[in-house]
Design brief:
With 153 residues, the protein is mainly β. 8% of the residues lie in helices and 44% in strands.
Length: 153
């Protein structure tokens, strides 16, 4: 049983309490990724470019997970990248000429894009490729413009 309550100093609202299985309040602590995270998947069967996750205005995307599955394809590549249409940073390029790509990455650290950057999947070659990403979004006032973001890495 929780006999104390943690409250915000700004608005006095209870912070992260949840009614437990026995209807008693419990204090819940979690990461922002666990609390606000979601996922999106995109699949290609032909050479194509698709937006996996887009942003609203100057928001940014933080990656929490990446799963890539593809078949072997002569002359094929699978690329996952952040881009804002001007600046591009490649997260992964898998050469699938000799073998398929089956990869799962639970990101640790701050795998965050910059203001306005969205996540793209680019496939070269006509083969099956599926990319799933776990992510959450950061508001524009907390996200960095590209030059400041690039200077930090």
């Amino acid at each position: 049983m929780l006999k104390a309550e943690l409250a915000s100093s700004k608005n006095k609202k209870s912070l992260h309490t949840h009614m437990g299985y026995d209807d008693e309040p419990v204090l819940v602590t979690t990461t922002h990724a666990d609390y606000a995270g979601t996922f999106k998947s995109v699949a290609h069967t032909v050479a194509a470019t698709s937006t996996i996750v887009s942003v609203n205005g100057l928001d940014a995307i933080v990656l929490t997970d990446l799963i890539v599955c593809s078949e072997k394809q002569a002359g094929g590549t699978v690329t996952v990248q952040f881009t804002d249409g001007v600046n591009t940073v490649i997260i992964l390029t898998a050469n699938v000429v000799d073998a398929p790509c089956n990869l799962a990455i639970p990101f640790m650290g701050n795998w965050c894009g910059w203001q306005g950057a969205y996540l793209e999947l680019i496939t070269v070659g006509n083969g099956d490729a599926t990319v799933s990403v776990g992510y959450f979004k950061v508001r524009a006032d907390k996200a960095l413009p590209y030059d400041a973001w690039n200077a930090k890495r």
